UniProtKB/TrEMBL annotation:
Full protein name: DNA-(apurinic or apyrimidinic site) endonuclease
Catalytic activity, EC: 3.1.-.-
A single BP term in Gene Ontology: base-excision repair
Cofactor comment: Probably binds two magnesium or manganese ions per subunit.
Provenance organism: Brassicogethes aeneus
Sequence segments annotated as region (Disordered): 1-161
Length: 463
């Protein structure tokens, strides 16, 4: 039984040791203090419990714990572990007490330990919070507007220089833009404004008695819709050669099956919507031959050979080397076969070759030679092919009559408004045998005739 309480003294029995039999030795401890504070002292003491100095607690609690520990010891037959079990139980109670509520008056040592643990647990969480302090966040938020404002507030000198550069560009581009507006996206030709005649005479002093016009129409049906056939009334050519008709004989539009005043001849590709050439003549040819005599090459319908009284006309659409030069080998084979055929014809009568040769022979024959040396139409192999043909006794009429003339092209891609900017290629030619060159009066490139990505050109000759 605990001793009677006095006004200012509290007497508590203290368990010093537990022997093997489970009996506890009891000692009395007297503490002075206020009667209302034992609970606080008990809580503070629990945090400093150790195996060497057991916690002081009311004897009633001690008896209950001793009874529990004794029961556990008897079941396990391990009396020596009783002290450890008691300590573990005490530790669990301490943890529960910490979670329930922190002591109001803890000892300095216990407080330090608790603070140390809290510091470790919160260390990782505390660091990012420090990085996201209001001041730093505010600083980051102001970075963008600060840099933006700085960019706006440039020195007056820099602003003036930029304005001057812009003005210069506008000034330089002003005249070309006006020219571009006249040509941009035009498909309708003002035929009455196009020149289809010449007053020039040949080296013999003779005026032209024969006109031959050639035109790559890039699709016969589309060309007709754009009014291309009007060239017959405007130009009145004696012979009209058309390339890239892209239509089979059985699908010819009615407008070109029977053309008043002309004999029509068509050579179509076996592939639908591909290649194809046509020939319209006022005078009926003595004979017409379709192809160059090479069975494989002639499948594409690229050539018509018309024989007249004193000459041959060869209307031709030369194969393109293709993107990434995939068909360059076939193109080179064509060059050899075509050259052989033309030289063979020339043994009988002089030959006039006209059409889309698909090559810019010299650098002057295209707007951007440096950037196109490895592109179809300007590879060294294709240019050499043209050189070989000319070496066989043929003359490039345009370059012969106008050796220094530049910026004269016959083809412009539809991309980037190239025609309006005159960024083009000279791919269409008249080649005559040198024996006929003295008979040539003139050649005109009709750059203002629309309806295709190529423009027509006309040869004036006396023969």
């Amino acid at each position: 039984m605990p001793p009677k309480r006095k006004a200012a003294v509290v007497t508590v029995e203290k368990v010093e040791e537990i022997d093997g039999s489970g009996d506890a030795k009891k000692t009395k401890t007297t503490k002075r203090g206020a009667v209302a504070e034992p609970a606080k002292t008990s809580r503070a003491t629990k945090k400093t419990v150790s195996h060497d100095e057991p916690e002081e607690m009311p004897i009633k609690d001690v008896k209950e714990k001793v009874a529990k520990d004794t029961k556990k010891t008897k079941k396990a037959d391990k009396p020596k572990e009783t002290t450890d079990e008691t300590s573990k139980t005490d530790d669990k109670d301490i943890k529960k007490t910490k979670k329930a509520a922190e002591p109001e008056e803890a000892s300095e040592e216990a407080t330090n330990k608790t603070n140390a643990k809290d510091t470790k647990k919160n260390k990782k969480a505390a660091e990012p919070k420090e990085k996201k302090e209001p001041v730093k966040t505010s600083s980051r938020a102001t970075k963008k507007p600060v840099s933006y404002n700085e960019a706006e507030e440039k020195p007056k000198k820099v602003v003036k220089e930029k304005v001057a550069k812009v003005d210069k560009k506008i000034k330089n581009a002003a005249e070309p833009k006006e020219a571009s507006d006249e040509l941009k996206n035009k498909t309708e030709t003002h035929w009455d404004e196009v020149k289809f005649t010449t007053n020039k005479k040949n080296n013999k002093g003779e005026s032209a008695n024969l006109t031959i016009t050639t035109w790559n129409v890039d699709g016969l049906r589309a060309w007709l819709k754009k009014g291309g056939l009007s060239i017959l009334d405007a130009c009145k050519p004696d012979i009209l050669c058309l390339q890239e008709t892209k239509v089979g004989d059985d699908k010819l539009p009615e407008e070109v099956k029977n053309v008043a005043g002309y004999h029509t001849h068509w050579c179509a590709s076996q592939k639908t919507g591909y290649a194809g050439v046509g020939l319209l003549t006022r005078e009926k040819p003595i004979s017409c031959c379709y192809g160059i005599g090479d069975e494989e090459q002639d499948e594409d319908g690229r050539c018509i050979i018309a024989e007249f009284e004193g000459f041959y006309v060869v209307a031709v659409y030369v194969p393109n080397a293709g993107r990434k030069l995939v068909t360059l080998p076939r193109r080179l084979e064509w060059n050899e076969a075509f050259k052989s055929r033309v030289l063979e014809l020339n043994k009988k009568k002089p030959v006039i070759v006209c059409g889309d040769m698909n090559v810019a022979h010299q650098e002057v024959d295209l707007a951007n030679p440096k950037t196109n040396k490895k592109n179809a139409g300007f590879t060294q192999e294709e240019r050499d092919g043209m050189t070989d043909l000319l070496a066989g006794g043929y003359v490039d009429v345009h370059r012969s009559l106008y050796p220094d003339q530049r910026d004269v092209y016959t083809f412009w891609t539809y991309l980037s408004n190239s025609r309006a900017k005159n960024v083009g290629w000279r791919l269409d030619y008249f080649l005559v045998h040198e024996s006929l060159m003295d008979n040539v009066c003139d050649i005109i490139t009709h750059k203002n005739v629309f309806g295709s990505d190529h423009c027509p050109l006309t040869l004036f000759i006396n023969i």
